[in-house]
Structures are given as structure tokens and as C-alpha cells.
């Protein structure tokens, strides 16, 4: 049964499924979640008139009152919520591969989402800058503030996965040190959700992303800002940052193991050529391998003191081609989470088809696909452009494909060939050279 209670009567463990008032009035980005201790202060200070809880998914008001005298008013204030018409709006149907948390039908317009993303980015920047400054001066990390920011980023990406990523791509060179950490946090959250992690893991992955470069605060700022190539001594100094960051986090209470792992190992490689420990293969956790992917992708697509930003398509094409540097399966999952794929890659599509990934029409847009083959019939089809943007008539990319497995010579899989050849319904073997 659902109950309406006052915000100050909410206790940890309850499951919130709605708020009174408007969408922008409550202090969270999502409206369905289990209450953690860190949520209580923000909830008590909010302006919402009431909160709706579900006693089938967590404690009800009577249970909370028995557990804590301070919440004794809960049972008196609570009353059943029979139909929820005043405060609960119907859920949209979830698209395949979409976020696991509920989304509500009265979502703000795109411009509002972008404005919310900019406000969240500004707050994230301020907290990250303060956190890094405290580390430089030997002060402790304020985990409550950092956790609040990560929590809001988790909620933001659940509501509108692309809004914050689009705003983050506009970061300036002088903000890179701080916003790179926010960007990697966002990318880690995005790909963790793509992999089907539960919300607690998604939060931990986000925190790991925010903290991954913490150790750079122990490196001379002049080295970090150097516009040219680093000499050997400078590079050796930079290579200490994973251990330096790990040591700082190890002394901080409340830091999850995933964050420690990613901080220490995000520069390791599956082929063993990374640092600081030269780990390889199964020695590297999934989280550390994802941290490496998110870190490099954001670095490549950002303006730096020594280089201009690459387009997402160029960065992904390069990363897919760097043999041994990344876990290929996880790299593909990352591509799915951001909607960008290597140009020229042959992929399996929904609807029993193969497609060739094309460059986006403009920088920052999702990849396009040239559909050219039906795997159900084993025959070519007339080449057709398709979008991967999740709109009507778009296609879903499922996995990388080996064209030779379908009797197609790889050298025939080019845009020029597929557009220039008159495809027929002859046996596929005629396509081989």
C-alpha cells in the first residue's frame, strides 16, 4: 500500500514512489528510490508538501515509528494513497536498453533538461574544485558533498542520458582538470547502467569516475598544464598519480572498493603495457577496464593544453583500432552507452540485418548506419541509410560482426562499394572476391 507522509517523517530504508508538488520542486532527479541516510537532510529541507512511500518495497510509517521515537508522528500524519491521482503520474513504457529507473510522462522540454544539466554541471564543478583544492592543502575529502553530486549525476543520466554529456563536451581547457573528473563520472554511470548494474553499483561506478584522477593533485600543476610533450622525468612524475590517489582514498572513510580499484588501475591495459603495476588480462577488474575506456575517451574528445579535441567518431574509431589497450567487449558496451561507433565497422542490427557504420553528419551526433544485408535470408539488400538515434525507423546496433562469417569479403564492406554496386538477390557467395 502507498502512504502520504511528511518529508521530515521519512526514514532510511523507505521506498519513495512519488512527491507532492511539481517535478522541479523536489530535491532529487528521480522519483522512485530507496531512501539512504544521505537523502534525509535534503528531503527534510525541501519544499515538497508530502512524500509517497510504498510499504511493499520498504518500511511503512507504522514500522518507522516503532523503530525510532523521533518518527512517531509518521503514523499520525500518514494516510493511504488510494489512486495517487494528485501526485503520481503514469510511467512511460521503457525502451529496450533504456534506463532501469522510472521515467515520468510530464518530462520537461529539451531546453529545460539542458538548463538543469548546466546547473548540475556548475555545482559539480564547484564541489570537485573544492575537493581537489582540499587535497592539495592536506585537508580531508568531504564525502557527503561528493556523494550528493554523484547521486544527482546518477539521477540526471537516468532522466536524460545525453543532456549532461552534451553540456560536458563544451568544457574549456582551463576547466579540464576538474570537469574531466565529472565527465568520467558521468560516462562511468552511463556505461554501468548499459551493463545492467543495480543502482548501488551505478553510484559506486560514478564515484570511482569522479575520484579516478585524484592523485594528480600531488603532481606539479606546471607539469599538468604543460602545452608540449613531457620529458621523461615529467612523465615519471605523472605516472605516480594512480598510487598517490589510491593512498588518499585509502585514508578516507566511506570510499567503496570500486573507487579505490579504479583510481589505482585506470592506466593499466589488458596487454600488460600499462602502469603502475603492469597488470594484464584477468588481473584487471571490469571496473578498472571501464575506467580506462572512459578516461581516454573524454581525454581525446576534450581540448587540452597541447591538442585540440577530436570528434567522438574519430576518438572511437582510434580506440577500436588500438589493439591490446582496451577490453573490446567492454569498449563496445561503452559505444552503445554513448551512441557512437567506429566509422567503417560492420555491425549486427536488430531485424536480422547487417550494417556499415558511417560517420555522423555533424560533430557530436550519433553514428549513422548503412543497412546492406539480411542475415535471415543470407542475401544482400538494397543499401539504405538508417539512424541510431532511437527515433522512429531507427536501428539498434547489437554487436560487431565479421562479414566473412556471412561469406562477404571485408574489402567489399565500404560505403563507396555498397552504394556503387547494384545489389541483386544472387547467392551471397558471389560477393566474395
CATH H-level superfamily of the largest domain = Hypothetical protein af1432
Shape: globular
**Main sheet: which strands, in order across?**
3-2-4-1-5
Q: What is the helix/strand order?
A: EEEHEHHEHHHHHHHHHHHHEEEEEH
pLDDT averaged residue by residue: 82
What does this protein look like?
With 433 residues, the chain is an alpha+beta fold. It folds into three domains: 2-80, no CATH class; 110-334, Hypothetical protein af1432 (Orthogonal Bundle), CATH 1.10.3210; 341-431. It is 40% helix and 11% strand. The protein contains 16 helices and ten strands. The protein has helices at residues 40-44, 61-67, 73-77, 110-136, 143-159, 161-168, 176-194, 199-211, 221-224, 232-238, 241-250, 257-265, 286-300, 312-321, 328-338, 415-420, and strands at 2-5, 15-19, 33-34, 51-54, 79-80, 346-349, 353-358, 368-374, 379-387, 397-400. The strands form two sheets. Strands 3-2-4-1-5 form a five-stranded antiparallel beta sheet. A five-stranded antiparallel beta sheet has the order 9-8-7-6-10. β6 (346-349) and β7 form a beta hairpin. α4 packs antiparallel against α5. The longest helix has 27 residues, at 110-136. It starts with a strand and ends in a 13-residue tail after the last helix. Residues 68-108 and 423-433 have low confidence and may be disordered. Residues 80-89 have a biased composition (Basic and acidic residues). It comes from Qipengyuania mesophila. Residues 67-76 have a biased composition (Polar residues). This is HD-GYP domain-containing protein. Residues 58-115 are annotated as: Disordered.
